[in-house]
Amino acid sequence: MNALLALSLFEAALARAPDERTGFIEREAGDDEVLRNGALALLAAHSASEGFLEPVVPDFASRELGPYRLIESIGVGGMGQVYLAERRDGAFEQRVAIKVMASALGDSDAIRRAEAERQFLAWLEHPNIARVLDGGSTAEGQPYVVMEYVDGERIDAWCRRHALDVKSRVRLFAQVIDAVDAAHRALIIHRDIKPANVLVTEQGAVKLLDFGIAKSLDGRTHGAATQAGSGPMTPDYASPEQFAGKPLTTACDVYTLGLVLYELLAGRAAFERGRLTLVDFARRVTSEMPTRPSARVDAASLALSPRALPAWRRRLLGDLDRIVLKALETEPERRYASARAFGDDLARWLDNRPVVARSPSVGYRTLKFVRRNRLPVAASLIAVLALVIGLGTAAMQARVAREEAERAQRANRFLLSMIERADPFVSGRNPTLIEALDRAAGDIPTQFANQPRLEADVRHAIGRAYLSLERLDEAETQLLRAEQLRSDQGGKALAETLDSLAMLDWSRGRYDVAEQRLQRALALVEPINAPETLAVILNDYGTLLNELGRYAESRPLFERALAISASSVELPPKERAVFRSNLAFALHGLGELQASSDAYVVSRRELEGVLSTRHPDIAINLNNHAAALRDMGRNGEAVPLLERSIAIRRELFGAEHPMSVTSLSNLALVYASVGRAEDARAAIDTALANAPRAFDPNNQTLGHVHFTAARIALLLGDTDDAIRLAQLALSIYARLDTVEEGRRERTEAFIREAEAKRSEAGA
Questions:
Q1: Which distant-in-sequence residues (6+ apart) come within 8 Å of 652 by Cβ?
Q2: Which pLDDT band holds residue 702 (cuts at 50, 70, 90)?
Q3: What is the structure's pLDDT at 436?
Q4: What digits encode the pLDDT tens for the residues 735-750?
């Protein structure tokens, strides 16, 4: 990495006055002696050439290059200068831009760059790419390129001057993607996409400029296709692989496109250098993900009024944040596969369609759905049968009309046929549950033509099954269709579908949308006699609020659900126990620790009366009760509860399941607090090792695990590791749409505490 950084640092130094260059290099290199010496050696060689590489500043009043007369400088950098010029040779008059390379005759690399740029632009005929017109060399031997003069403004300044809203900025940026996609289809990567190289005309047309450090992927010019990224770059707009000196692909341009879009939406750079040295900045870019744009909106830069700022942030929150962050993944293979794929996802966002760049899941949900692997049908028929029984039972009550009963029977027959086709003796092999669901979903249009209520029942059931298996796209297709079919029914049926869709939104991190759906569902069931459905929706809404840390709002919802369950004969005892366990969680969050502990004890007794002792709901209860006991200072009592919870979860789901990792990190904290240091280290090391496989990178629970590890490190006296782990947790929280209230603040306070302890120890 140092050789590449040294070249880039040298290039940046050339843009400064000669007497400032040495000091600039020394400041930027910081403590990196290899980087500093490398850049200074290049500068020394440059100086020894007696200005041989120095750009010649022509006499603007008289300087001519062939048929062109230079008018004024319109850009300068370490690689050369760009001039506004006009052609006056009698044939015709034309204004052009001429880029004169900062090199003299004999510098073969600079000549090759100029020739390559001319050739690249000759290959690229696209309305959003500035055209090349001519080229040559000055009398001093400096190569130059004559380009179409674009009378435009930097894209960020143009957006600000025209007060573009979020959607308009995205639409404008789509032109940039079109230009880059055209280059990629011509097997050319730009390598220097930044706002200064993207101009917008007064008519709103984008022009991508400056292919001076571009590279062909097929080796036609500028090196072989597999050559590492060893050429010049703009550090503030460089990809991780450019800093690392790795081979460059189109993923490099996808990353820099992400940087530009981030800046257009947030009004500030994804990574701001501040006082960081170049090497520290490079280390940050190559190892960290940026904070989500919605969390860093700069109102002044975007010329937003204080009143407009919240709405702007909400517009970025969720899918648009995720699209930008997917383009900015540190590992190239995790980014969009192409500029076109990036553009397609932005088009989906503009059309209010589901985007590719969603988080798979924000973590396991305490009540409803457990993360599962793909299971063979032979081991999962009970899950499908539960759909059949549940659908039938809901409609086969004595009070239900004959039409409802017949509808349920037909739905049952359809779902039972799905099970039959999943039988390996029928299909000839052992298909998966998902394959069975896929076949059933494909049969719905023919099986239930002109039967909208029956079609809605089946789609809702299959959608719930997909959701429990975390096949979120398939679940959304089925549930949205069920909502459409049930929209004229209203009442209980539509409320249940809205509840399911809310669970889907929750799984995708769309908390605001999930809450809106749950509020609509409550409004539908409140006026009618559907107490069991009302209790379930109250519980689901309360559980969402629990995850967001809004315990004062969730508590009355659980209390209502419990009151309904006490007088209902149709809600099974397990549901009542789960409602109580969730109430205990809210009480814990409100600081009513003894009341929380008592509720967990009662809930667990109820669960153990109706469930197997190895049931996941019991493991959840044990884990959460232990957390309450820990906060009460009763760590010794918490240890056996956590050990039992972990044993259940590992047996049911394996060591890498989110539930197992979360419980293990909690147990490590308790071990540390009771003086079992070695047990604590072993437990947290295992949890941290399994966490990346258990959680998505943008999952707040991953942040919780790192924060727990930081607390353990501090308890064990390792302040450096405590600070490092807490900063990792904070970087995860900063990327998220919504985080439990107070989490970021508590983490920041912890870091300050650890830093103070480190200072005291150093003194």
A1: 614, 616, 619
A2: confident
A3: 64
A4: 776 677 778 888 999 9
What is the per-residue burial (b if ≥16 Cβ within 10 Å, else e) of 703-737? bbbbbbbbbbbbbbebbebbbbbbbbbbbbbbbbb
Confidence of residue 380 (pLDDT cuts 50, 70, 90): very low
Q: What's phi and psi for 338, nearest 5 deg?
A: -160, 165
How far does Cα 405 stand from its chain's mean position? Answer: 46
Q: Are 638 and 630 in contact (CB under 8 A)?
A: yes
Q: For residue 513, what are the contacts with CB-CB under 8 A and spacing of at least 6?
A: 318, 502, 505
Q: Which residue has the tokens 């947290």?
A: 684
Q: Please give the pLDDT value at position 710.
A: 92
Tokens of 247: 């081979």
User: Given the structure tokens 């397990």, which residue do they identify?
Assistant: 574
Q: Which helix (H) or strand (E) holds 74?
A: strand 68-77
- Would you state the structure tokens that stand for residue 283, as one six-digit string? 């280390």
Q: Please compute, for residue 55, the number of CA atoms within 13 A of its CA located in the half-sphere on the CB side.
A: 24
Nearest 5°: the CA angle 699, 242, 115 is 145
> What pLDDT digit, counting tens, does each position of 595-619 carry?
999 999 999 999 888 887 778 888 8
Q: Quick one: which of 50, 210, 187 has its CA closest to 129?
A: 210
The one-letter code for the residue type at 174 is: A
Type of residue at 725: L
Tokens of 656: 């890498």
Q: What is the pLDDT of residue 650?
A: 84
Instruction: State whether residue 369 is helix, strand or coil.
Output: coil
Catalytic positions are: 192
Alpha-carbon gap, residue 746 to 732, rounded angstroms: 14
Cβ atoms within 10 Å of 20's Cβ, excluding its own: 11
Q: How confident is the model at residue 273 (pLDDT cuts 50, 70, 90)?
A: confident
Distance between CA atoms of residues 384 and 392, nearest Å: 13
Q: Check residue 127 and report its DSSP letter.
A: T
Name, in order, each residue with C-beta under 8 angstroms of 213's C-beta and a sequence gap of 6 or more.
79, 113, 191, 192, 231, 232, 233
Confidence of residue 434 (pLDDT cuts 50, 70, 90): low
Cβ burial 70-107 (10 Å sphere, 16+ → b, else e): beeeeeebbbbbbbbbebeeeeeebebbbbbbbbbeeb
